[in-house]
Amino acid sequence: MGATAREDHFRRLFLGEYRHVLAYALRRTSNLADAQDVVADTFTVAWRRLDDVPPDEYSRPWLFGVARRSIANQRRSQSRRLAMRERMRGQEPTVSEGEEAIEGRQRFHAVLAALARLPDDEQEVLRLASWEGLSHREIGIVLGCSENAAAIRLHRARRRLEEVMKEDLSSGHSVDA
Amino acid sequence: MNEYEVSELLARANAIDVADLPEPRESPDAERLLASILALDPTEPENATGSNRRPASVVRALPAWSRDPKSLNRGVVPLVVLLLVLAIAAVIAAAVSIGSSNPRPPAFDRPAGSGDVIPRRAADYLNLRPGETRKVGSWTDSEGVVRDLYVATSSGLPGSKEPRPMTCLLFGGSGSTGGGCNPASDFFAGRSLVWTASSDDADPSGETHAFIVGVATPAVGAVRVLDSAGKTTDLEVNRDGGFIYEVTPMLRSAGIEPVRLTAIDPEGTIIDRVELRQIG
Fold first, then answer.
1. CB-nearest partner of B11 from A40, A44, A130
2. Cα atoms in the Cβ-side hemisphere of radius 13 Å centred on A166
3. Distances (CA, A) of A138 to A10, A129, B4
4. Do A44 and B10 touch (CB under 8 A)?
5. Interchain contact, A27 vs B226, CB within 8 Å
6. Among A90, A158, A166, whose Cβ lies nearest the Cβ of B7?
7. What ipTM goes with this model?
8. For chain B (length 280 residues), average pLDDT per consecutive 10?
């Protein structure tokens, strides 16, 4: 691939996927600066390894996989649970709201708190499916496993999340938000 | 509530909607990032962390020794770097520029004061121009040692075959002074800050303090340091643009070193960043 073609290819990739990678990072980091660092790392790796980036719809999960490793490096000394709490705090309403909205927010807090109690790998597979909307095959690309393995992991994680939610509800587990 | 209802609830708990984020063509941060990455040489070998994040434009702006600080010990580029060992310690330095268009340190925009004078011995050795030295910062480190950072312009460094004006960062303390220089005509090399990594590794006491010191342009409000343990520290930039980051012996013995500097403007926008190599 010539230098100009390479640049054009990368530019298309960047312009098409920038917001998705930023959203991926924002959903997993506690502030914009950290998310921007992850985006920078991810696209720099993509630039260097442009020949390894899968074509078309599979480029996004490939980028998510790179972003995932960048976040892991960034967060080695940080508590993932703390980040989740920060995100939940960010969702606190600043204006009065109706009972229905409060109930919805409490339910979101409950599911996010339950998610935060799962192992990191299970949290990630759930987020990839629920927040990034990835297919089993795409999840497999992010996590470096087969499509079948991704489907099994997702199924197990969903069951685990359900179990934790039920445990929390039955025990009156409070949400630390 | 079954597992699918829980999954649906989780999906709705997603706080970030891609549609709410700016298009990259409308985002100065994204445009800047894209330009920085396209300036990278994709064939440059990866670093130890598996990625090469330093823009090639920065690397090209640097003398060879800055890419391999150990070369200082071998005297590979005596024209650009000087190492003054005035006592038991040695300071190994490398000057690197990242981010903006200011040609000279902001401290030169104010009149010189009595505190800006560099010791005669160093000034004579470096052919420093009278009146073109400024102390841009003075800090006391964790051991109680006062560390001073100067900028100074030399008419021509000793040993240079083709002497030309150079502006230097000079960092001193504990009896030693060292630093690095860039051409005076373009001290910031079109970037936002110039930094020097310095270590006391020659100290026979075995203490291995290290520092990242530098000067930033007026556009920089803070310098963020990311260390290899993932911790970030925001450094204050003083009125002369000076900043310092100390790597204590304890951190160094644990293998924790700064790995990235990020220049941030007063509004919190990232202006530039640079990945650091091993500092000593």
1. A130
2. 10
3. 20, 9, 20
4. no
5. no
6. A158
7. 0.75
8. 76 79 83 81 49 28 29 25 30 39 80 80 78 89 83 82 82 70 83 79 56 90 89 91 87 81 90 68
